[in-house]
Specification:
alpha+beta, eight-stranded mixed sheet
Amino acid sequence: MSDWLTKIPEAAREYIAGRRLDEVECIVPDIAGVARGKAMPASKFARQESFFLPNSIFLQTITGEWADNPSGAFTEPDMVLVPDFETVSAAPWTADVTLQVIHDVLDQQGNPVPVAPRNVLKRIVALYAERGWRPIVAPEMEFFLVARNIDPNQPIQPPMGRSGRRAAAKQAYSLSAVDEYGKVIDDIYDFAEAQGFEIDGILQEGGAGQVEINLAHGDPVALADEIFYFKRLIREAALRHDCFATFMAKPIEGEPGSAMHIHHSVVDAAGRNIFSDEQGRETPAFMHFIAGMQAHLPAAIALLAPYVNSYRRYVPDFAAPINLEWGRDNRTTGLRVPISGPVARRVENRLAGMDCNPYLGLAASLATGYLGLTHQDSPRAECLGDAYMSEDELPTNLGDALDLMVESDPMREVLGSEFVDVYESVKRNEYKEFLQVISPWEREHLLLNV
């Protein structure tokens, strides 16, 4: 692998130009989207073709516990990690000159490990390719900058701005609000540039210290890689300025939650958007895609809202969708059709939380649209009014969401049954742990009153 530096993206080559590369971080995204792997001297990385990690990394919960292995004994056999050189990226916050590289995860026979989240997304993209289609996505990332919180028993507070006052809520789209933590934003821009990432825009969202970053549209796997990297660089930028960045769906009581809105379109082999015909009108395929999302998103919610906290975001009057209605230029609907020309016609899924694993969030969302395209379903009539007035159609907790996922034969078929079983095992373990925790609300209202 001595010539590996010739295979890496230009941004990474520019980052190390004229400097000695010290370290390489070999990374695999786990079920939660946490970076697992190992770091090693660049010289050692150059001498190896592949690396090994146990398959148990995909059975590890967010708390560090181990879920049961649905497919057999917990023997932790090694998986083979092969570097994907297209993902090589700078780690510009480190003291040494360091590159990161995401690895493909294979079994010892060379087959993709079906429970690896990046492989799940690749599986969905391959299903589209078999039909002569190529999905295009454009994600939006929302997150909060918050004051450092080292005691989990204390509520999260907004960060202190440059004015010496805490960031205020209800300042959506305010440029002066963004300027309050401009130094963090500056570092986010600098880190993104060093990593070769294109930011389409940064804006203040409705929550106190809540920021949105929009990414340019592109290939789902490449953009999931970017979001995975972005979460890391944003956290590092915040730490440089004595605050935290959090991607929790609902970190602050009384504030809006953070979403990962996903815009979808599909092009054919010639690069034409199949959602528009030659006259620029909406096609039946466009309606089929929406119908698939309406029919199958309930069974995908466990992937789009993967934690108990995720369901605190699905409440009325907090700018979060709580329905499966669709509408043109209607932000109260879970499925929004933005204003666009025929070439850019697309569907925006507003249900995914920013706490989801980006590979699994994109895979689940694209899977529902794929099922609609292949089943040629028809959607309900467009919602022309306030969709918040509609009946709730989404599971209201993680347990119900998991029930819907595991019982859905179509979702098992497209995501892979082995993955669904492993995901359920991990999430049931996390849910069980959460239910053993007694909350302040319970102590306040039940201790002396019941």
